[in-house]
Design a protein that fits this description.
The complex is a heterodimer of chains A (about 400) and B (about 140).
Chain A lengths: L4 E12 L5 H16 L8 E5 L6 H4 L1 H9 L5 E5 L5 H14 L5 E8 L17 H9 L3 H16 L3 H14 L14 H6 L2 E3 L2 E2 L8 E9 L1 H5 L6 E7 L30 H13 L8 E4 L4 H10 L8 H6 L16 H5 L3 H17 L12 E8 L3 E8 L1
Chain B lengths: L5 E3 L15 E5 L5 E2 L17 E5 L3 E10 L16 E8 L4 E7 L12 E11 L4 E9 L1
Parallel strand pairs in B: 1-9, 7-9
Antiparallel strand pairs in B: 2-3, 2-4, 5-6, 5-8, 6-7, 8-9
Classes of the chains: A alpha/beta (about 400), B mainly beta (about 140).
Amino acid sequence: MSHEVAILGVGMHPWGKWGRNFVEYGVAAARAALADAGLDWRQVQFVAGADTIRNGYPGYVAGATFAQALGWTGAHVTSTYGACASGAQAIGVARAQILAGLCDVALVVGADTTPKGFFAPQKGERGADPDWLRFRLLGATNPIYFGLYARRRMEAYGATREDFAQVKVKNSRHGLSNPNARYHKTVTLDEVMKSPVVSDPLRLLDICATSDGGAALVLSSLEFARKRTSKPVKIAAVSTVTPRFPQTVIEMPNFSTDSAVSARVPDIGFKDSIAKHAYEQAGLGPEDMQLAEVYDLSTALELDWYENIGLCKPGEAERLLRSGDTAIGGRIPVNPSGGLACFGEAIPAQAIAQVCELTWQIRGQAGERQVQGARAGVTANQGLFGHGSSVIVTS
Amino acid sequence: MPPKPRKPAIEGWFTMDAAKPRLLGTRCAKCGTVYFPKETSFCRNPGCAGTEFAETELSPRGRLWSFTNNCYQPPEPYVSPDPFVPYAVAAVELEAERMVVLGQVDGASVDELEAGMQMELVLGTLYEDADAEYVVWKWRPA
């Protein structure tokens, strides 16, 4: 059975530090996606909202919040939270509803308003919450974990600080003409290398900012889409797998890995498995992709993803970057949107934004950042508590 | 003024033996999987139905898997000395337990660390208030 659904419309509210209510960004993105699809909001039968945990109760029930703001219509609704994978989980739920024949048209929306500075845990004394405890006992911010992974690349594969910086240089060029990006400025190697160290070996310009923004998709069954367009862009796979025990790589927000004394260590690691499941669902492989949007929370993490999504073998990411293959114009451009380096992270919107970018690219609507011959692309993302996602978009 | 009493920053995660501190975890009575922090209800090995756990001391030495540092003051609930002093964080691989455990680094900056080096467990001050000095486990080059 085909697992494909059509992407009829995509829309975003530009990323920034606007300081307004997240609902406004979500509704703007939803309206843009509906206009792109040529559909009226009242035709949407199912709404999937990706939750934000930093904006009070409306953020925990994001689906209903957006539905109310768009005007109650009696549509079915759901709200999902999966840390950085929240948006992909919302896509996954909407896709399942469509594939089960329970609806023809679904709207997926994610939006966030973020505070300044480091992401911090929620307030209060919460001695049983590892996300609270890691800050309390270790001061372990997200960049601490990014720094551990980056140092590991240096130790295991001989990556250099310059390699990491070159990821930022590349992505800053990609995002220059992207109207939805927050930063539109070329960054030089020298600027990255002169920015202050946050968590060694990572510098300020190696680490993504936190942003406000919103993204939305209108999804439909292929049958519904074919009445409107002869060649809809499609979602061919959504992977939201958990790690497998024992997870032997340290994960945010944990103090330790699983112990591997009793159970066999899985043949492939968690991040590899996220993309592997997506490829298997789609019946495609990395060689079938012309581009990728990956979660560059740090520059070094983008290099990890090259390997995790199968663009090269472990230890070869630096070579792939240095060859120019992952820049626009290269063999397999990565983050043609500019990535988190140019957007900053708006958590529940980010995985949806990745799919928006692939859709524009495959339609040939990406303007100056267009990847020539884009027919299929893969997204990848990972966040706290064993969440991750990968979505494959095809022509 | 007498010295302030030393108290654990969190109860039950480590012993307060300043000379030979140990991390306190649990071990599943059925499959032997070790947990830190402690798991006391259900074993997380999907192939194990264990519900009984014994407290166990973790190895006090391990190999440095990776490391980094905080150059900026972390947000609350971290309680920072004023002024903030940058510190390193280590991920240390325990051979017997086959797991990696994080900890602040005592007495060494990132420039003095190298993956693969032996690290040992110590107790160090996390923060102080008017009543007590609160201590936490830390890693130090052995």
